[in-house]
Amino acid sequence: MSDRRAARWRIARRGLAMLVVLALGAWIALPDPLIETSRFLHYEDSVEIADRYGAPLRFARSGAADRRWVPLASISRDLIDAVVAVEDHRFWEHEGVDVRGTFRALVFNFVPGHRWSGASTITQQLVKLVYGRPHGVASKGVEIARALALERAFSKDEILEQYLNRLPYGNGIEGVERASQAYFGHSASELTLSEAALLAGIPQAPSATEPRRHLPRAMRRRALVLSRLETLGLRSAEEIAAARADEVRIVPTPPRPWRAARFVDVVLRDRARGALIARGGSLRTSLDLPLQDRAEQLLEARVRELGPRGVENGAAIVIANASGEVLAYVGAARRGPDAPGGALDLLRAPRQPGSTLKPFVYGLLFERGGTAASVLDDVATPMTGRAGVLYAPRDYDGTERGPVRARVALSASLNLAALDAARRVGPDRVLARLEALGVRDVPSVEEVGAAAVLGGVDVRAIELAEAYVALARGGTRVPLRYVPGAIEEGTEVMPADAAAIVRDILADGRARAQAFGSDLHVESEGLDIALKTGTSTGFRDAWAVVLDERVTVLVWLGDPEGGATRAVSGFEGAAPVAARLFAAAHARIASLGATVDTVVREDVALQHASICAHTGLLAGARCHAVVTERFAPGTSPTRTCDAHAEDGALLLPPRYAEWIARVHPADVRIRSSEDTALVAAPVIVHPRAGARMLADPRRGETRIPLRATIAGALADDVEWEIDGALWREPTWPLRPGEHRFVARARGLRSDEARVTVE
What we know:
Layout: H1 3-29, E1 47-50, E2 56-60, E3 66-67, H2 77-87, H3 99-109, H4 122-131, H5 139-153, H6 156-164, E4 173-174, H7 176-184, H8 193-201, H9 206-209, H10 215-231, H11 237-245, H12 261-272, E5 282-284, H13 289-306, E6 313-320, E7 326-330, H14 358-367, E8 375-378, E9 383-384, E10 390-391, E11 402-405, H15 406-411, H16 415-425, H17 427-436, H18 445-448, H19 461-472, E12 476-477, E13 491-492, H20 496-506, H21 509-516, E14 530-535, E15 541-547, E16 551-558, H22 570-592, E17 607-612, E18 626-631, E19 650-652, H23 657-663, E20 668-670, E21 683-686, E22 692-693, E23 703-705, E24 707-710, E25 713-714, E26 719-722, E27 725-727, E28 731-733, E29 737-745, E30 748-749, E31 753-757
Parallel strand pairs: 1-5, 3-4, 19-20, 22-31
Antiparallel strand pairs: 1-2, 6-7, 6-16, 8-11, 9-10, 12-13, 14-15, 15-16, 17-18, 21-24, 23-28, 24-25, 26-27, 26-29, 29-30, 29-31
Helix pairs in contact: 1-3, 1-5, 2-8, 2-10, 4-5, 4-6, 8-10, 10-11, 13-22, 14-16, 14-20, 16-17
């Protein structure tokens, strides 16, 4: 034996001994068990997110990789044999480590002048793919130890399936299934021998043999794989010759769809937490792509049109009421980093809702005995709002209408009447109802009080839309769905008759036109709609909700950064585009399926009665303004109106005295002793009994006026008792605690008014 050969054998023996020592050391030092089976679970597949008909919206990778797991039985035998031939032809014989191959590699790898030769088996390579090489010089020994353990834990088929599904193929592609689809346009079960040989050659150097950029290199590698198959006798010479002659066709890179971006983000978040499951590599959602495209077009055009008036962006959602399916979802009309809020989901951003919460306050009023004919006080009264700030609310046009029926008040979105409704039902009930409807982050009564009805509670558009779906369904709430689903029974959050009256008012086009000067008959393409709009303080948010028994549409317009628009209201700005989107949704209904084109509620049969337009009571002989009103069963008025004098004047209760003194309405006066037998005792009009106020010591002393009426007229000769002590000033400083107010005049005393100051 020559000196060189002797040296080679000595090196090989020492190397083999070193590997044995390393493997034994790893076996002893590494934790037991060596193989953690949890690391070998099937990974989460990449998935195609599609609309309800299968139109692609986005291809979502699994982590950073593009991959899809397939069982070994679904992989071409040509590919299996090609991979085994080129990577580890004794795979079926060894027990995790190829001793002969390792020994041969040591002989050549440690002799100068010889090319490096690897000896890792498929089992060892799988260990490397799963665990990496975290142990430095000792990694080879660790691989050997783990490979031996892996062969005892898994069958050969299981090891090969794991290996083939984890191999790298360039461009972030992992596993033979996605590689076959990406490069050849079909699954790994359909690979030809030529295609299988090409794929088998890529993993050793994926970046250098990726066939779209380096096809010549990939073809040279394919030739080596085919030669290996022939040498090992795994394929005949004729089969190899045919494969060499086969022209490989690499499919072009398909365009990556990127549609309904914020909607898909929501779907992927739900999928990540296990709420949604993909089937066969695809997840079909509830979205209707034609309707989505129309929604984006309409909203983008409206934002562009109102851009000169400070509208920077917008958002919209369309929901099928029967199932809660989301049919269209525009998170931002203007997208991209250069547009304000263009990278955000504005449907999930907390905003001031303006008047859009009013219908739910009226719903509480109706379920507690009120009707659309109930008279509310549209009268300015100082109150504490958010953070206890004392302010004097006004209607949008700055006027006070005095007594006004609930139908008129809600149709015209009157602030003062809505505050009266909120006070009557109680702010605590208003906030509890908002929570029941799905509004998050509802503040306490002390923080916001009755001002919640005017937008004092920040609301996300997605929450507001869900609340209106409950109203459209007759009072039952369903969670929003992002995949097609069955008709939902829902959870009752408000009585059906109360919801029916609210919907009836919102659908009253005549009342709406009287309030806003126009209606949206053209924009809705003649469809009957229920509509509610909202405009937040300073014209920062413009809202509109359009609904019927089948679909609910919500639109928001404004500046995502909180800037004020130039007087863009909900009715002027958001309502027209919401009505157009509603018409577009109805045009699609017939093709959307039973869960959309279905009515889940039974309408309450409303009753009709002729009433006095001023008092809401049954019309009497002297009533000169008579209207027909609709009532839930059993709620029609039974008392006849007697509030008109012989001279035609409207006679009002004493609580309207201060309003009459300020506004001077024609042919209106307080009912006096000449009209009734009322005793002219003082009546406290401010502060009102039951009022809750907040004193902020940081703002210094806050004083409130003290007012009382006698026989309906403001009285100047009233003495005051506060907490049992005489008080002679016309104003009183807010002091924390519960206080008792009594007005005295002409030997008569008013009823006690209890007020809480915090």
